[in-house]
Amino acid sequence: MQPDGSIYEIEALEHIYAGRSVLRIEQLAIEAGGIVGLVGPNGSGKSTLLKLLGLIEKPSRGSLRFRGKVLDPFAPRARHHVTLLPQEPSLMKRNVFRNVAYGLRLRGQTDQLEARVQEALSFVGLPAEHFARRPWYALSGGETLRAALAARLALKPRVLLLDEPTAGVDAASAHLIKDAALRAQREWGTTLIVASHDRPWLYEVCSDVLQLFKGRIFGTGEETVLFGPWERFTDGTWGKTLSDNQHLRIPEPPGPETPAVVENIILGETDRNPSPDQVHLQGVVSRLNLAQKTGRVFATVLVEKLSWTVPLTQEQVLHRSIYPGKTVTIQYRLDSMRWV
Amino acid sequence: MDFLLDGLMQAARLLTGGDAETYSAIMITLQVSTLSMLCSLLIGIPLGFSLGHFEFPGKRPLRTLVDTLMALPTVFIGLLVYAFLTHRGPLGHFGLLFTLPGIAIGQTILALPIVIGLTATAIESLEEKTRVTLLSLGANRRQLFLSSLWEARHGVLSGAIAAYGRVMTEVGISMMVGGNIKWQTRTITTAIALETNKGQFGMGVALGLVLLAIAFGVNLSVSFLRRKT
Amino acid sequence: MKLFTIAGLCLCLTVLGPGLNLAAEEPVLMMATTSSTDNTGLLDTLASEFRKAAGIELRWTATGTGKALRLGENCDVDILMVHAPAAEKEFVEAGYGIRRREVMHNDFVITGPEGDLANIRGKSIREALTALRTRSALFVSRGDNSGTHKKELFLWKAAGLTVPEKESWYVQTGQGMLSTIHIAAERQGYTLTDRGTYIKYEATLQGNPPLTILTDGDPALMNQYSVIQINPEHCANVNAGLARKFIEWIVGADAQKLIGNFKLLGKPLFTPNAKP
After folding, report:
1. Residue C15: inside a domain, yes or no?
2. Buried b (16+ CB within 10 A) or exposed e, A135-157
3. CA C197 to CA C39: how far, in whole Å?
4. Are residues A209 and A240 in the same domain?
5. Does the N-terminal peptide bond of residue B90 adopt cis geometry, omega within 30 degrees of 0?
6. Which of B133, B139, B141 is closest, CB to CB, to A90?
7. Residues B179-196: tens digit of each pLDDT
């Protein structure tokens, strides 16, 4: 990790909210200029991490360095370079123009205010002549979100943090939002950090994806998480019976509900003699995604209702003719499982 | 009953005829209530913001205390302030008894819990999202304070109006601390009390209507402002 | 921006407003008095004449006698004009006041419903109160420690009766004289009032009042008003010089004549009786 390449460095960080530890990260560095995706279920700590990175809150313990410096939430210099678009953002009770101009005014950057606000609005597809004078309550959900994004883009930030930017908006708005964010990264070198459930998009655009679960980073999103409750079968092994009568087997869990992480899932060979610590399951390919950075392909395989992420090479896709809808066998080893 | 109608007519006569005593009472009422509102807003809004914005131990009990103090009887405040301002009291040497600033002190105490409580409620009712929005756009402490107040402006304004209503209409403090001295500290409300004591019920009603007209004017301009922002 | 403009206007009003009252830079004498002298308008007349004569502005706060005495004791005023001789003497003896001078008197009367069920019309005050007690006739008392209330308590005792505090026919209003008369009228009761307030009450009803004067003229019913200067040895801050001037003026021939000629609704109200 080169210090000058990292815009954020986290060490032994813990954040406690209402007496509960909601985020714990031993070490993490985020490179400047890239696009980082955050995935994980609701409540896994994505929003908390974004608030810390956005310098909205100060971590309870440990250090968070921005461009090599430990910062307070009210340190104005750094905060003028970082901006967060929170989940379901709200506009302030003033018209669209004033909303977008607000951050610039705070920074005292009022020359060419009009032009910068117009540019930001055009980035998100809200023509200023129609939208600038509208009051905050006269916008649709998608327009509100885009106006809120425009308020951030007007600042030409070094870091733009987006929390579920496309959740609950129409397809057209989602498309405009993604486009505008990527354009900022491309044109100004803005570092993008995006929490989203839209995995295909993240895998498509991100240089790194971090998977969070229960406040911990445990992988890069290529892992599959399996949830309990677990049962003990009559033969003494553990797992759960799926509704299509397949048996999902796991090693003995530390607790009846502890989620398991599975790595190195591969497409099953027609293996005549499966070893006892290998598990085979049958499922249907639902999606294929390309990870931009590595050139690898990920297949999402649905086994009953469980979603598995299976890394593939391009050859495998070609030669075994993997396509969405195809029934495949996946296999993993019991000793490759971890507990969360 | 006829003194009500009589009062209506007298009110019109007082306002149009330029009755010196009435205008003196109106001016004094406006001066003292403006002074006490300025003080209570200046002190109360920052305190109310702190109470609504920050989390600290003892916040709930403090909140309950403020809410309780909203029910302070005006005569009690009058006595309390008198005890401090009388020449034999701790602040006696300032000579504030029977003066407008003296009344304003009492009225500020009257208005403060209302301003603090309703500002705190308005700030509390701002969503967490608002705070995140302001911070994420780069607001520092001062800007966060001002912008939060601006976002909560309708609630804060309601608090100010409620406080103004109480200040304008109180009798106990003006009577006890001001002494109802003609041309000096006679407000509309103490004048009403006096006229009623004198049996001039019609005059009392007339002055009451004058007070109501002022309150109407104030509220009208406030609601005009509210629509503009 | 508009907010600031309005706030600015309010500020100007507040700051410049009091200036309007500062036009007259005369010395100011502060008096605490009872509502009866203020309500009748006598003080307005006296104050304007005193200003002409001495160039001193008289300001007053009108309350009950009890509170007026407290204001004096606490050095909040320079002079008192009250009507509770016994309490006044105590006040002077305690060292709070000096130079107590009697100024004028009017009298108290007992009013009651025209029907007069207790039959007190024309009786002496002693007989009247005894009759009220025997018949348990509704009596409405001020109950506010005012001069009138003190007088009433004194009269019960002087008649050899205990004060009927707890009796169901004895009602204490805790309010001013006029309100108390109104309450007595509404409930068809008897009450003790100063004649001045009764005259105003009678006038507001334009004839045919539900209460009439039943007992008056008894020497015990005299209502004596006096002025007392606050003792400058007790209160260093008081304006002893002005207070002394006022006392000298009000017991003087001119002011005494003024009091004698003062009429409320065409009826003389006070009898000047300052001893030279």
Report:
1. no
2. ebeebeebbbbbbbbbbbbbbbb
3. 8
4. no
5. no
6. B133
7. 888 888 999 999 998 888
The reply to whether A278 and A170 lie within a common domain is: no
Taking contacts as CB-CB distances below 8 angstroms, the residues of chain A near B157 are none
CB contacts, 8 Å: B86 with chain C? 71, 74-76
Cα A131 to Cα A114, A150, C47: the distances in Å are 13, 12, 69
- Domain assignments of chain B as residue spans, ordered by start: 28-190
Q: Count how many domains chain A has.
A: 2
Distance (Å) from the alpha carbon of B138 to chain A's nearest alpha carbon: 5
> Do C136 and C210 fall within a single domain?
yes
Sign of CA dihedral A108, A112, A118, A124: negative
Residue A1 included in any domain: no
Q: Which amino acid, B140?
A: N
- From first to last of the 276 residues of chain C, give the pLDDT tens digit: 445 555 555 555 555 554 444 445 789 999 999 877 887 888 999 999 999 998 999 999 988 888 899 999 999 999 999 988 889 999 999 999 999 999 999 889 999 998 888 888 988 999 999 999 999 899 999 988 888 888 899 999 999 888 888 888 998 988 888 889 988 988 899 999 988 888 888 877 776 788 899 998 888 898 899 999 999 999 888 889 999 999 999 999 999 999 999 988 788 888 898 887
Residue C146 CB-density burial (10 A; 0-12 exposed, 13-18 middle, 19+ buried)? buried
CATH level 3 topology of B28-190: MetI-like fold (1.10.3720)
Q: Which two tokens stand for residue C240?
A: 């002893």
Instruction: Show the domain range for A110.
Output: 6-219
Residues C94 and C190 occupy one common structural domain: no
Tokens 């030669």 locate to A319
Q: Is residue C3 part of a domain?
A: no
Determine which of C3, C61, C183, C269 to mutate to test the interface with B (most B C-beta atoms within 10 Å).
Answer: C61
Could you tell me the CATH number of the domain that includes residue C168?
3.40.190.10
Instruction: Note down the domain range covering C130.
Output: 107-221
**Among chain B residues, CA nearest to A55:** B136
Same domain, A188 and A236: no
Asked if C235 is an interface residue toward chain B (Cβ–Cβ < 8 A), one would say yes
**pLDDT under 70: residue ranges of chain A:** 1-4, 73-76, 269-274, 293
B132 neighbourhood in chain A, CB within 8 Å: 51, 56, 84, 86
What is the distance between the alpha carbons of residues A9 and A63, in angstroms, rounded to a whole number? Answer: 8
B130 touches chain C (CB under 8 A): no
Quote the ipTM score.
Answer: 0.79
pTM of the model: 0.76
